[in-house]
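Example 4.3 (complexes with small molecules)
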Amino acid sequence: MTSEVGLDAPVSRNIKENGTMSTPTIGNTVRHLKEVGSTQDAARSWAAEGAAVGAVVVADSQTAGRGRHGRPWISPAGKGLYLSVVLGQDGAERGIQWSIAAAVAVSRALEGMTGLRAGIRWPNDVLVTGKKVCGILAETYSEGPLILGLGINLSGSGSDLDPQASTLAELRGSELEPEALLERLLEELGLCHTVLSEGRFEVLLMEARERSVLLGRQVRVQCSGREFTAQAVDLEANGALRVRTEDGKEESLTAAEVERLR
Ligand code: BTN
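Answer. The structure with biotin bound is encoded below.
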């Protein structure tokens, strides 16, 4: 059961001065819920009812927030920013691109608002001073669009957080205004959306390489039931992570859990 606390009128931010349509803005319509199971499901249902590309669902809290690999994403009110974005039907093949693009957008927004350098742990965790502050979930379904979910740790501690995670309040020493962060984030996501729509993923990839906390490092990889150590070598043109295993073989990873060892 969702309770809707505000449904903003659609904002026509995607019409250029000469009247032609530009890339749909991310956040052209925002649905703000007080509490929801998962914003991912709310966004998916909304898309099925006709929500356009760029529509965003934000919730104050989630009772069944989810992370990657079926993990829960604990989402208490006032402690985090929880949102999901409806993206295009071509989302399936764009999943990895959007994962990386979103990590770039979040990094830019966090850095712009806190002055703290944000790094990316491929494919899409955002870290500040080595601690995870944002998780991103790009979900595709057999039908319907790609739904991109973002969870940002604003404040709080203890059982809500993984030991390798932190909050922006802790790292920055003071709390961020969630509305201001949301606005900045939607703006950065919109810029990345335009770049992707123009087929210029390589621009975002270049920034993701610069921000990568893995490249050149020894990493532990878990994928398809295997676990091994390797060196993270590069991000490939399609967004895959290239690693070199201890016997010198190179592998391209498109889906894996990767942890930095040193
Ligand atoms: C991860 O790091 O495992 C990804 C976490 C994604 C969490 C966000 S919070 C908003 C959206 N709704 C969800 O249920 N999950 C995502």
